[in-house]
Structures are given as structure tokens and as C-alpha cells.
Specification:
41% of the residues lie in helices and 11% in strands. By secondary structure, it is α/β, with parallel strands linked by helices. It starts with a helix and ends in a 10-residue tail after the last strand.
Length: 283
């Protein structure tokens, strides 16, 4: 196990979806209509949580999937099985998106397997709860930014030469970017950076016919929080503070990614969608 991997796992992150009780709901809720027919999508963090639900829904809509993940081989294999059960192709690529060389490998292996890239979903992320800013170590601060925002830069840098007009990039930001989070100072800061990255990259690429948007989920039941991403007292009442009074499920978020990936969103770029349980967001 590398030093980087040890750091990521200091809180048992990213965690096995197969061990969660209750199990997150990833299943698509409706029949597909070929909105992504024969396209190829790279999805980071696709082994579990929101990433798995997005992979399942994209596959149902006719898309081949590149499943990028950090450590959980069993979860990644299950997502691959889900995609293939929808009649689509999938490959799994294991590694640390915070490393530039790994992004080059993702793109190389994607082109080797499928020959093209039409969609990039930057979904992978990590968080570590700290009630006091003095509890955030330099190593943790660097690690959180490396995964959550550097990884997005690296992957888009690697993929950019292969993205043509009509391609879509969707980044995962968070409700914490808009509300703040007193226990997630470093995580919330990266999500602010992701939103700014989304808007700026949209301006940069819109003339090339490449759309860049984001999704800002609220509290969603995935391995991220119960496997160390939230303090025990916060986890006990996870999602209850939303107007709907409950956490969301991954399959309640995935349709936002689908909308932004397909032609239904052809007139949208630089925007953020908010599946967050009814929380009103300004900005």
C-alpha cells in the first residue's frame, strides 16, 4: 500500500458499498430511450455511490462506460456487471486520480478499448470531518485538494485533445459550496473551487462546442459519509436537516448527470443543477 493510499484510508475511505446497511439505491427508475446511444463516458468514482448510479443510468441510455476507481475492486466489478447487464461494454481502471500520470493512463486505456471519448464525469472525491480548523493536517489539506480538484484538472488536461464538438464534461460539486459546512472546511473549499472551475472551463471550451456543467448534490446515502466522511453525531441525523427531512439516494441524483450529458441540455453550459432535498440555493 502506497503512502497516498494510506492517507486516503485514514478514515476507512472511500469505503465499500457492499457493506452498507441499508444499501444505497442505484437502480435506474425508468426505461432507457437511447439518449446516449453508442457514446463513451469516463466516470471517476464509478465503483459506488453516485458514480455507480450514473454508470447504470448512462448504460441504460446506450453508453459504454469507463469505471475509474481507487481501491474497492469488488464494488468496481459489481458496477461493471451492472453496465454489462444493460447490454453495454465496460472497463475498470484502478488508480489515484490525484496523480497526473494516472489520468494519462485513463485516457490511453479508454482510447485503446473504445477509440473515442464523448463524456467525462468528474465525480470522485473525498472528505474528512474536523470540528476545528487546527485539526486539519497539512497532509490532509493537500490530499483533499489533490483528489477533489487537482484530479479534475489532470483528467481534463489528458482528455482534452480527444474531446470534439458535442462532448460534455460534468463535474460533481456540492451543496456545501453554497451553504458552507462547519465540519468540512477543506472539502467545502474544494467544492467552491470545482464550481469556479466548471464556470471557467465552460467559458474556455464553449467556442469549441464542448459543454461544461456541474451537479451539486445535497446529503446522499453513499459510502463517503458512513465510512469516515462524517462524524458519528452528524451521521446519526444524516439528511434530516433538508426540507424533505431525509438523505437522497444515488438514483435521485443520476438523472441530473444524464440531462447534462445528453442533447436535452444542448443550450446549457457553465450551469449547476441542485438535487438537494429542497434546499433553496442562491448563486
Amino acid at each position: 500500500m502506497t503512502e497516498t493510499t494510506e492517507m486516503v484510508h485514514e478514515d476507512r475511505l472511500p469505503g465499500h458499498e457492499s457493506k452498507l446497511d441499508p444499501q444505497p439505491e442505484w437502480q435506474p427508475r425508468y426505461e432507457g430511450s437511447n439518449r446516449l446511444k453508442d457514446k463513451v463516458a469516463i466516470i471517476t468514482g464509478a465503483d459506488s455511490g453516485i458514480g455507480r448510479a450514473v454508470a447504470a443510468l448512462f448504460a441504460r441510455e446506450g453508453c459504454d462506460i469507463v469505471i475509474v476507481y481507487l481501491l474497492e475492486d469488488d464494488d468496481a466489478a459489481e458496477t461493471k456487471r451492472i453496465v454489462e447487464a444493460e447490454g453495454r461494454r465496460a472497463i475498470t481502471i484502478r488508480g489515484d486520480i490525484g496523480e497526473k500520470d494516472f489520468s494519462d493512463e485513463i485516457v490511453r486505456r479508454t482510447l485503446q478499448a473504445f477509440g473515442r471519448i464523448e463524456i467525462v464525469v468528474n465525480n470522485a472525491g473525498e472528505q474528512h470531518p474536523d470540528k476545528d480548523i487546527t485539526g486539519i493536517t497539512e497532509e490532509q489539506l493537500r490530499r483533499t485538494f489533490q483528489t477533489n480538484i487537482f484530479g479534475m484538472f489532470f483528467l481534463i488536461q489528458s482528455a482534452r485533445p480527444h474531446l470534439k464538438s458535442g462532448a460534455a464534461i460534468i463535474n460533481c460539486t456540492s451543496v456545501t459550496m453554497y451553504q458552507g459546512s462547519k465540519e468540512l472546511l477543506d472539502y467545502s473549499s474544494t467544492k467552491g473551487a470545482i464550481t469556479a472551475f466548471t464556470r471557467s472551463l465552460s467559458e474556455n471550451l464553449i467556442g469549441e462546442g464542448i459543454r461544461v456543467n456541474a451537479v451539486a448534490p445535497g446529503p446522499i446515502w453513499t459510502p463517503l459519509n458512513p465510512c469516515g466522511g462524517a462524524s458519528p453525531d452528524k451521521l446519526e441525523h444524516f439528511g434530516e436537516s433538508t426540507p424533505m427531512g431525509r438523505p437522497g439516494q444515488p438514483n435521485e441524483v443520476a438523472p441530473a448527470f444524464l440531462f447534462l450529458a445528453c442533447e436535452d441540455a444542448s443550450y446549457m453550459s457553465g450551469q449547476v443543477l441542485h438535487p438537494n432535498g429542497g434546499t433553496i440555493i442562491n448563486g
